[in-house]
Amino acid sequence: MHIRSLVVVNVALMGALVFMDTGCRTKAGGWRWPWQKDTSSLLSNDANSSLLDNNTDLSKVTDEAGNVVSGARFEDTLQAVQGVKFSPVYFAFDSYVLPPSEVSKVEQVAQHLKQNASHVLVVEGNCDERGSNEYNMSLGENRALAVREYLVKLGISADRIQTRSYGEEKPAVAGTGEEVWHLNRRGEFALFQK
Amino acid sequence: MALAAVGTGLVAEAQSAGRPPLISVVKKGAEKDTVTLSGLRAAGPNGQLFIRTLQRDLELSGWFKVVSTGSGAVTVNGAVAEAGGGIQSNCRVAWLGKNFGWTKVSMGPAEVRKQAHQLSDEMVRLVAGEKGFAQTRIVFVNRRGRNNADLYMCDADGQGMQQITHDNVAAVGPRWAPNGRDIYYTSFLQGYPSICRLSVGGGRSNLASFRGLNTGAAISPDGSRAALILSYQGNPELYTLSLGSGQLVRLTQTRIGAEASPCWSPDGRSIVYVSDVTKTPQLYIVDVATRQSRRLTYKGAENVNPDWSAKGKIVYATKRDGGYQVAVIDPRIGEGSCELITSASDYEHPSWAVDGRHIVCSSRSTLYILDTLGDPAVRLINIAGNWMSPDWSDR
Questions:
Q1: How close B393 gets to chain A, by Cα (Å)?
Q2: For A55-69, B231-245, B270-284, which range has the lowest pLDDT when averaged over its residues?
Q3: Whole-angstrom distance between the N-terminal and C-terminal Cα of chain A?
């Protein structure tokens, strides 16, 4: 029986994706998951934040010091900046050390951020297809963090840079072999308007 | 207790002829009891579906060999009548002077198959004294291409396959919760990795979407906590998250290093995980109470994807001779107890069945069930796809 209801849910989800791309921002400025119902029209503006969290397992996550862990991400709340492209930075096999050959590319990004105070950045880490895809999620994150660390060294405020890892899930180039792997072990840059 | 031994060869081949790869099984086949089902009469299609499913389940269990001639050490006699679009079973299982009766009504083919799974598990429990997996399910990923994947699941016999997400975005590392209903995995639906809970037959919700990395959620045996990998405090680290209070506890402090793939010990006191603090990814075990970690593996260029069975052994993928092999280790003994289950042929992401004997894993876009006692590997599904990352439910 449950299989049938799953299919219905998923058909509804596909529809949601078609119309909303990948989820959407709510009127109240919060984030609504693509599979969440838009309840904002049923609610007064003050009341909706808790209900919009209906599909979150935990209403609040705290660390050991009792601080609430915030989930605010640029991707959820800001508009992407169109028309500015940066060269990807490439990494050695199984390494998240930023190679000297790639440093000037990061310096160009730093230059842009210095000249555009309203821009913020997401550094995206990627891996080649080899190895455990779960471990590659963490390796990709460390690559993005290495780039972030260098940007901070160049004087960019850490608040302006977030990271995301796609592990081996989003190769730049399809296929296999050294040249393809090299092009896929990379950090990419996505700008957002504050 | 093996009443009759059935031997198999040293090297077994995957079921479908002409399809690579060959599977090398290290040990000879396991001992089994013979079973005859010829005394079980079925008048119609649902009854025949019941017997067919039962026969397949008994053979997949590893404890039985179904024989069509002569009298098996175990006999199943009785009738499976057609009733209301399903069946009414009335039979008796007998072995070594012992027996039990089985009478049940099931409506519709899905329920008929379910009843066969139940009877198979009951025979495994009472005759072999082991836990059967016929009623469990396997979740896995179909990666179609660049940032394009979805989750699927099937019954432990490979039947009843269902696509359970329709997102067309990357999905990583699905894991069953111990309740056998919830699946936790890493979804890229929002354009970054976040941890989702998918309730089979229900909805989907978000567990963690903090800054940076959110991945690797594994639920503790008592269902109270998730082990997960987060980077919101700087770089990827291992945490536990209380599913009741939302309290996070950080278990690792590796400024230069990345953690991945946590899995709980059966007593919930330890977590095995992957870390690259010594450059290559290796397995470590952390004591959840003291937060003390110890390194478990040294051999092999990489050791990844650990899964801890209820019987205490850890299965993982080890990179030796250029390819990944499935290895089993007893963490109480250490690496000296390591047994290689397969050849080096890209076997990845092993996951234990609830019997602590069988393992599902992927190799080159195909899913296989391996037997640590030496039965030939079985291809789980024969449908084209880029199948990977299987996880076997406990119930």
A1: 17
A2: A55-69
A3: 47
Which residue range(s) make up the domain with B105? 33-128
The answer to whether the CB atoms of A6 and B162 lie below 8 A apart is yes
**What are the tens digits of pLDDT across the range A11-69?**
444 434 333 334 444 433 344 555 554 433 333 333 333 222 348 889 899 999 999 99
Give the single-character DSSP code of A35. T
The residue length of chain B stands at 395
Same domain, B85 and B158: no
Test A174 with B190 for CB contact under 8 angstroms. Answer: no
Please report where in the chains the tokens 């394009």 appear, as a residue. Answer: B148
Same domain, B286 and B309: yes
Does a structural domain hold residue B382?
Answer: yes
Are A137 and B165 inside 8 Å of each other by CB?
Answer: no
Which pair of structure tokens corresponds to residue B160?
């009843």
pLDDT at site A8: 41
What is the rounded CA–CA span in Å between residue B153 and residue A3? 11
Write down all domains in chain A, each with its CATH number in brackets: 2-52 (no CATH), 76-193 (3.30.1330.60)
Residue B145: its chain A contacts at CB < 8 A?
Answer: 174
The reply to whether B289 and B379 lie within a common domain is yes
Give the model confidence (pLDDT) of B31-45 as tens digits.
899 999 999 999 899
Please check the confidence at residue B146 and state whether its pLDDT lies above 80: yes
Q: Which residues contact A135 (CB under 8 A, 6 or more apart)?
A: B258, B260, B261, B274, B276, B281, B302, B304
**B124 and B143: one domain?**
no
Scanning every residue of chain A, which has its alpha carbon at the shortest distance from the alpha carbon of B234? A145
Q: How far is B58 from chain A (nearest CA, A)?
A: 25
Interfacial A residues in 29-68 facing B (CB < 8 Å): 31, 33-35, 55-64
Q: Are residues B154 and B302 in the same domain?
A: yes
Taking only residues 54 to 73 of chain B, the set having a beta carbon closer than 8 angstroms to any beta carbon of chain A reads none
Phi, psi at residue B118, to the nearest 5°?
-65, -45
Separation of alpha carbons B233 and B252, rounded Å: 12
Q: What confidence tier does A164 reach under pLDDT thresholds 50, 70, 90?
A: very high
Examine the domain organization and report whether B44 and B184 are in the same domain: no
Q: What is the DSSP letter of A81?
A: P
Q: Is residue B93 part of a domain?
A: yes
Strand partners, B361: B368
B329-373 pLDDT, tens digit each: 999 999 999 999 998 888 999 999 999 999 999 999 999 999 999
Residues B282 and B181 in one domain: yes
Backbone dihedral angles phi then psi of residue B195, each to the nearest 5 degrees: -95, 125
- Taking CB atoms and an 8 Å cutoff, what residues of chain B touch A163? 211-213, 231
User: What does the block give as tokens for B259?
Assistant: 């953690």
> Residue A27 class from Cβ within 10 Å (0-12 exposed, 13-18 middle, 19+ buried)?
exposed
Number of domains in chain B: 2
Query: Is residue B187 situated within a structural domain?
Result: yes
Partners of B317 in the β-ladder = B304, B326
Tens of pLDDT, residues A109-149: 999 999 999 999 999 999 999 999 999 999 999 999 999 99
The answer as to whether B366 is a domain residue is yes
pLDDT bracket for residue B29 (50, 70, 90): low
